[in-house]
Design a protein that fits this description.
Length: 121
C-alpha cells in the first residue's frame, strides 16, 4: 500500500518536472534570441508566457508541499534511472524514474505549455 495519498502524487511529480520544463524553456529562449530567426519577438513572447505559467504552477506546488509538510529530494542517478525520495507524514518513499520517461514527460509538458500560450494569444 503506498504511503503517499493519490492526490499528493501529482504535486510531487510537479516538483520533478516543472524545474526541468523551465530549464528547457530558458535555454530555448536563448537559442531563439541568438538564432537566425527573422522575427524573434513572437517566439520569445510565447516562450516567456509559457515560463510565467510554469513558474506560477511551480509556486502553487511549493505552497501545497509546504502546507502539507511534504518534501522531495533527488537521490541517485545513473544512465538509466533517477531516484527521488518523497517525504510525507513522517514517512519516506523512494521512487525510481526512467530517464527516458522523464525526458518524454518534459517534452509532453512543453507541448502543453506552448499550446496553452498559443491559445491565449
Amino acid at each position: 500500500m503506498p504511503l503517499i495519498p493519490a492526490e499528493s502524487l501529482p504535486h510531487f511529480e510537479n516538483m520533478i518536472y516543472l524545474p526541468m520544463v523551465l530549464t528547457v524553456l530558458e535555454r530555448d529562449r536563448e537559442i531563439v534570441e541568438k538564432g537566425p530567426f527573422k522575427l524573434k519577438r513572437p517566439y520569445v513572447a510565447m516562450i516567456d508566457q509559457a515560463v510565467k505559467e510554469a513558474q506560477r504552477e511551480l509556486k502553487d506546488t511549493k505552497l501545497y508541499l509546504r502546507q502539507k509538510n511534504m518534501k522531495i529530494i533527488r537521490g541517485n542517478r545513473d544512465d538509466t534511472f533517477t531516484e527521488y525520495v518523497f517525504f510525507y507524514g513522517g514517512y519516506e518513499e523512494h521512487r525510481r524514474y526512467l530517464n527516458v520517461r522523464l525526458r518524454n514527460r518534459v517534452e509532453e509538458l512543453l507541448g502543453v505549455y506552448l499550446v496553452k500560450m498559443k491559445q491565449v494569444n
